[in-house]
Design brief:
The protein has 7 helices and 6 strands, in the order ββαααβαβαβαβα. About 35% of the residues lie in helices and about 15% in strands.
Length: about 210
């Protein structure tokens, strides 16, 4: 089992924690990680793009000129795709881009993502995150103390004071153990977990 340091909000090491290899030490499956990321991005697509084909645009009922003898190429409608104001060839229509992957595959992908963070030294454990008031400046200072910029911060329980303190920081995203996903973990430069969040994640995913 891997041992990682535990820091306080001042950035000082206050102990160590042993990580469960069943969650943070699995064999990394890059294919499942890729599939999970693609699935999340696909499921987030609105799928509302729409353009009109030649059968849907208005006008164009009359043949613009006779078939032969004009010197022009033959034309049947002013709403054909090659005309200004004409329809779109193979126009996009509203569709659902989402697809499903198995629950076991999704869990395995998340474990792979968490293992990758540990292997590359991009996982930071803090003993706690608590503020007595909503203050963005304090949260920024904590991130500086931990030497963290682009990060996903996972807390064990919802704390509005901490969450609202982080709301205006563009490169910080807050999450709970039951809301973390492969895309957010892989996108974040550093994964910051509280000690309690580590225990919960191990209980849920081990």
């Amino acid at each position: 089992m891997a041992n990682v340091s535990v820091f306080n909000m001042e950035g000082k090491e206050v102990g160590t924690i042993e990580l469960n290899d069943a969650v943070f030490g699995v064999e990394i499956n890059e294919h499942l990680v890729h599939m999970a990321v693609v699935q999340q991005l696909a499921n987030n697509r609105q799928g509302t793009q729409k353009a009109k084909t030649r059968s849907e645009v208005s006008g164009g009922g009359r043949k613009p000129w006779r078939q032969k003898g004009t010197g022009h190429a033959r034309q049947g409608s002013t709403r054909a795709p090659q005309w200004t104001g004409g329809g779109v060839v193979f126009a996009p229509v509203p569709r659902d881009y989402s697809f499903k992957i198995n629950r076991k595959e999704k869990r395995a992908a998340l474990k792979s993502a968490l293992t990758d963070k540990v292997a590359k030294g991009n996982l930071i454990v803090v003993d706690e995150l608590k503020f007595d008031e909503i203050k963005t400046k304090k949260f920024v200072q904590v991130m500086k103390n931990l030497n963290v910029t682009n990060s996903l911060v996972v807390m064990n329980e919802k704390d509005d004071t901490v969450i609202r303190s982080a709301n205006n920081i563009p490169d910080v995203k807050m999450a709970l153990p039951n809301t973390i996903n492969v895309y957010d973990v892989m996108k974040a430069g550093k994964l910051v977990l509280t000690k309690d969040a580590v225990k919960t994640i191990e209980e849920v995913y081990a």
